[in-house]
Amino acid sequence: MRVRAAVAVVSLTTALSASFVPAAAQAADRAAPSDTTFSHVVVNGGKDVVLGLTTRKTVTITWQATDPDGIVASWAYLWHGPNTDDADGNLPMYPPTGTCTASSADRTTVTCKVSIGVDAARDFDHNGLAGTWNVLAGAQDAGDDWTEIDVAGTAHFKRYGKVTVNASPEPVKKGRTITVTGRLTRANWDSGTYTGYRGQSVRLQFRKKGSTTYKTLKTITSGGSGTLKTTTKATADGYFRFLFPGTATTGPSTAAGDFVDVR
């Protein structure tokens, strides 16, 4: 936690709205105790942010800031790296103040929101950015002191995964062998292409014709270039698919079912 006079806001490199910087400049540059706290920090509604090569989406951060002296302004942004000084990613590049609603006239508690435009092609230029990002939350109180918490919350940004499936032969006689092939790939932000994802557990599933439920038949491991191949016995008409549950850096993916006519 960092607690300073609000004059230090200028160190955010114009990251905050100019609406309160002039007032901040009137405060002395001193350390001070702070009762400001942050809670209910949520990014993207609590869901992972999964990005392909050209994905554009709006990511929202919501939070609460509380201080007995009253909150003048509050802000939050996302950062990635070992610490804020050595961050290799910031979203947005120039963080605005949040839009805050006070629960009382003295503004001791405010509920805030900020929306961030994320462009994968612009903001994610290397695969190392996949994984956990941190939320920095800050606030200025009525005494012109400000507080920042470097890790007030977290969010997970993941590379988009894709899996395909093909079951053959079709039609096939009951009891004969069906070969199911496919490929698991994911967005490669380094190269700007989709590349194979090897060594990952992928489930082969089957849904009998007339049913709405898929059942897992077996789990296999993706090979070189993300290739998938396995066999199973033909028992009834139905749909085969591969399901990839995802990892800490790659989003889940499920192939559309491939129908096989069993005779």
Structure report:
Helices cover 3% and strands 51% of the residues. It has 2 domains: 2-159, Sandwich (Immunoglobulin-like); 161-260, Immunoglobulin-like, CATH 2.60.40.730. The protein has helices at residues 21-24, 120-123; strands at residues 2-5, 37-43, 49-51, 56-66, 71-80, 89-91, 99-102, 109-119, 131-141, 145-159, 161-163, 166-168, 177-188, 193-196, 201-208, 215-221, 227-233, 238-244, 253-254, 258-260. It is elongated. The protein starts with a strand and ends with a strand. The chain is built from 2 helices and 20 strands. The protein is mostly beta strands and 263 residues long. The model is unreliable at 4-32 (pLDDT under 50). Strands 1, 3, 5, 6, 9 and 10 form a 6-stranded mixed sheet that branches.
